[in-house]
C-alpha cells in the first residue's frame, strides 16, 4: 500500500529533535495552532473494514490531543497524545511514543488526517502514521 503526505496550516517538516522513529529521522512540527494538519492518502487499501491507525509522536512533558479525520469524517474520539514516557516539561527528545485510534476504511484510496481544531491541545511532534487491519485489542 502506497501513501503520500500533505501538510497544511503551518505544519512543517523538521529533524532537529532526536529520537524520531521515521525512516529519515524527520517529523512534522507546527501543529499547535488551529487549522494545522497532516493528511495521509493511502492508495490500495485491500478491503473495506476496521483498521487501527497508529500515530508516532512526542509531547513536551504534557498531555495533548488532536482531531482524527478519515475520508472527510471527523472521528468522535480524539487522538490522545499522552505523556506516557513521563518526559519533563519542554523535553520533546524524551517524549517519543505511540497511540492508536479505530477507523473504518473503504477498499481503494483513503485519507487519514491528524489536525488541530478549536479546543485541541496539539503541542506535539508527529513522526509516523501507519495502519493495521483490525481493531487493536479486539477480536
UniProtKB/TrEMBL annotation:
Domain CBM6 positions: 1-132
GO-annotated molecular function: carbohydrate binding
Q: Which residues form the signal peptide?
A: none
Q: Which region ranges are annotated with the description Disordered? A: 1-22
- Its protein name is CBM6 domain-containing protein
Q: Which organism is it from?
A: Streptomyces guryensis
Classification lineage: Bacteria, Bacillati, Actinomycetota, Actinomycetes, Kitasatosporales
Amino acid at each position: 500500500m502506497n501513501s503520500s503526505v500533505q501538510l497544511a496550516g503551518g505544519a512543517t517538516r523538521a529533524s532537529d529533535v532526536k529520537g524520531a522513529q521515521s525512516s529519515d529521522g524527520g517529523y512534522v512540527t507546527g501543529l499547535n495552532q488551529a487549522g494545522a494538519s497532516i493528511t495521509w492518502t493511502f492508495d490500495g487499501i485491500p478491503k473495506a473494514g476496521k483498521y487501527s491507525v497508529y500515530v508516532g509522536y512526542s509531547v513536551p512533558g504534557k498531555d495533548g490531543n488532536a482531531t482524527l479525520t478519515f475520508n472527510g469524517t471527523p472521528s468522535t474520539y480524539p487522538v490522545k497524545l499522552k505523556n506516557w514516557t513521563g518526559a519533563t516539561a519542554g523535553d520533546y527528545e524524551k517524549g517519543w511514543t505511540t497511540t492508536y485510534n479505530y477507523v473504518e476504511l473503504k477498499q481503494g484510496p483513503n485519507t487519514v488526517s491528524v489536525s488541530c481544531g478549536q479546543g485541541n491541545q496539539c503541542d506535539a511532534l508527529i513522526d509516523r502514521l501507519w495502519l493495521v487491519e483490525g481493531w487493536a485489542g479486539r477480536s
